[in-house]
Every structure is written in C-alpha cells, then in structure tokens.
Amino acid sequence: MVGSVIFGIILDKTHKFKQIHSNFSKEFERGYLEVLKHQFGRERVHANRVYQYYISDRHHLHMTSTQWDTLTDFVKWLGREGKCKVDEAEEGWYVQYIDRDPETIAMQEAVSRKEKIDRDDQEMMMMAFIEKQIEKGKEVFTEFVRPSEQHKIVVNLKLEIKRDGDMKNKTLVAGNALKNGSSADKGEVKRGSYQPLVRSLKMKRTREHINRKDYWLVEGIVVKVMAKCLGDKYHRKKGVVTGVPDKCVATVCMLDSGHKLKLDQEHLETVIPAIGRPVRVVNGAYRGCSAMLRELDQKKFCVTIEISSGPLKGRIVDRVEYGDICKLYNVDM
C-alpha cells in the first residue's frame, strides 16, 4: 500500500516536471523566434548570432531548462517543424524566419511579379532603342554626280549686303555646324557599337530558351534530401549524386551514413556553398558550366557567379536563382 502511494507520488511529480519542461521549451522557442523576426526579418543569418542577441537579455531563459541539449538540436527541430528555413554551411547552421502572414505573402508575391515585369519592360525598351539607333546608323548620304558633261547645274544665289554683326553671327553658326558634323561622325561610331550588345542580349535569351529544362540532376553535385516520409534519418541530410538513371531520378549516396537512395528530383534540393567555392550550373542559360560563387543576395534569393571553364571562362553572371546552381562535391578550382 505504501509502495503504491510512493509510486503515485513519483508519477505525479514526473508529469509536473515534464509539463514545466515543455512550458520552458515553448517560452525559449517563442523568445528565439521573436528575436529572429524583429532583429533580422527574413534575412538568412547564423543561428548562433540570433542566440547571442537572445541571451543579451538578462531575463532570458537558459537552454538547459528546455528539451534541447544544444543549439544545433534546437535549429534542426525548427527546420523539421517548418518554423524556419535552416541549412548547414561550413561556418555552421543558418536560419531564416518564415513569415506565414497571408497579407505579407501576398505582398511579397506582388513585389516579385512587379520586379520581373519591370525587368522585362526595361529589356524590351533597351532592345527597341538599340534597334532604332542601328536603323539610323544605316542611313547613307550619297555623293552628287552629274549624269553627263552637258547636264547643267543651276545655282540660285541671292546676294544681299550684310552688316558686320550678321557676318560674325554667320561665322559662329558655320563653326558650330562643323563641330556638330564632327560629333555626328563620332555618333555614327557609337551607334555601331550597339550591335554587339544586341547580339549578346539575343544570344543570352536564346541560351535561356534552349537550356531551361524541367529537370536538373547531374552527377557530382551535393543535394539535400527534403522527403519527410523518409524520417529524420534522411530528411534534410546531404548526399552526393552518383548516378542519374532517369532525367528526374538520381542515385544519392548519403554523406553521413554512406547509404544509397534512389530519389525523384521533387524530393531533392540544390545546396548553396560558401562564397568562393565551386558550383555547377544545373539549369538556365549557362546550364552545364562550372563556376565560382562570387556573391549571395539573400533578399532576392539569387547569386552572382563567375564562369570558370570553357569558352566563357571569366564571364560574370548575376541574378542567378538558387535552384539553377548547386555545390560540387570535393572539387578545388
């Protein structure tokens, strides 16, 4: 009888402890996400940097009171629960706040659509302007030639007595006309220089149209498994594509366990390396090219790369979307 009473007391205290533990975990989570939202917005930031902001408040809740042993465990949990976008880089884990407010999402989509329309309009206006300048540059002024020696040329000159002031003005006008004529000749050269730019724009659009596919898998790239149905053992873990038996299917060797999985590209995601590391362009105008990652625009979810091989070596390409490039496995360039 006494034993059962003691056992009941222990169970009751255990239940209360778990409840307190759960409440502390929720409070820590809420405080961390508040800092991430208000201090960094939708910026991709190092998880430890957010944590340092959080613990700067002397009334903060210690992580030792929560269900997570380390900050890495907490960040992984945020990713699994879909509360943040998380990814691992060479410097550690990064987090990005997900704003699920419907008005905010609608506004972001509207801004993205407007930016795309503006870019397309600017390109079209530039193309039209350049084409117009080229047409003007094709105008040719032919030299006057008499049909025969018997052909008479009649020149009607009206001579009037001009004052000295008028003659000076005429001289100035004639001088300006000569200068303008010289500038016009230079203008012809400048108009001709538009032609390579037009060709470059047309070639870029042609490459984009030809190389933009609905599949992107290629051997030798590092990918992230996004299939939740595979469980925590594989979800959000990285692997190397060792084979592509079908356009949209890859054989992936997991980096941590060495296990091989056969996955559809819908369950995979490209991996963005650190700046200065090699990548492979897997889709878009420069599909198949090897490049170096030069800049990362976290607000617009795009990067700037430098082509590192082939006839286009050295070319800088900006506004490349995250999904169009992928980290190469163990390649030093």
Automatic annotation (TrEMBL):
Q: Which organism is it from?
A: Cryptotermes secundus
Q: Which residues form the signal peptide?
A: none
Q: Which GO terms describe its molecular function?
A: double-stranded DNA binding; zinc ion binding
PANTHER family from the UniProt entry: DNA_RNA-BINDING PROTEIN KIN17, KIN17 KIN, ANTIGENIC DETERMINANT OF RECA PROTEIN HOMOLOG
Cellular component (GO) terms are: nucleus
Q: What is this protein called?
A: DNA/RNA-binding protein Kin17 WH-like domain-containing protein
Question: Which UniProt keywords are given for this protein, alphabetically ordered?
Answer: Metal-binding, Zinc, Zinc-finger
Gene3D superfamilies in the record: 2.30.30.140, 2.30.30.30, DNA/RNA-binding protein Kin17, conserved domain
Family of this protein: Belongs to the KIN17 family.
* DNA/RNA-binding protein Kin17 WH-like domain: residues covered: 10-135
User: What SMART domains is this protein classified in?
Assistant: Kin17_mid
An individual GO BP term: DNA replication
